[in-house]
Write a structure and sequence with these properties.
CATH topology: de novo design (two linked rop proteins)
Number of strands: 0
Number of domains: 1
Structural class: mainly alpha
CATH architecture: Up-down Bundle
Oligomer: single chain
Number of helices: 4
Radius of gyration: 15 Å
Largest sheet: none
Length: 119
């Protein structure tokens, strides 16, 4: 087991979640239960799966949960793109959040590689 609170990827994923929550606060009211809700769930899924995987009994299980977190990154990027195309978020916010998500994806891949070498 790993202490997720000590993992830099978990901390970065928490930061992304907070940024996303602030970002969707500016969405139209009509999106409150649609796209903005889905975006929040995707963003929260990233650190949640990292934490859940860290609590599992083996690195093999942790790798699987990291894969789920990575999938949530792709899901979030897709939803951010849709939001951008709908003009719910600015070009600058789009670039900033996507750069953060790209960084997390790379960190997850690197951590998976490290864990696989231990399995």
């Amino acid at each position: 087991m790993h202490n997720y609170k000590e993992l830099k990827i978990w901390s970065k994923a928490i930061d992304i979640s907070l940024i996303v929550y602030q970002l969707v606060n500016n969405f139209p009211e009509s999106e409150k239960f649609n796209l903005s809700s889905q975006i929040r769930r995707s963003a929260i899924s990233i650190p949640s799966n990292i934490a859940e995987g860290a609590g599992r009994n083996s690195d093999k299980e942790f790798i699987r949960f990291l894969s789920i977190a990575k999938g949530s990154c792709y899901e979030l990027q897709t939803q951010i793109l849709i939001s951008h195309k709908l003009n719910f978020i600015t070009d600058e916010d789009n670039k900033t959040i996507n750069a953060s998500i790209d960084e997390i994806e790379k960190m997850i891949r690197g951590f998976q590689t490290k864990l696989k070498s231990n399995v």
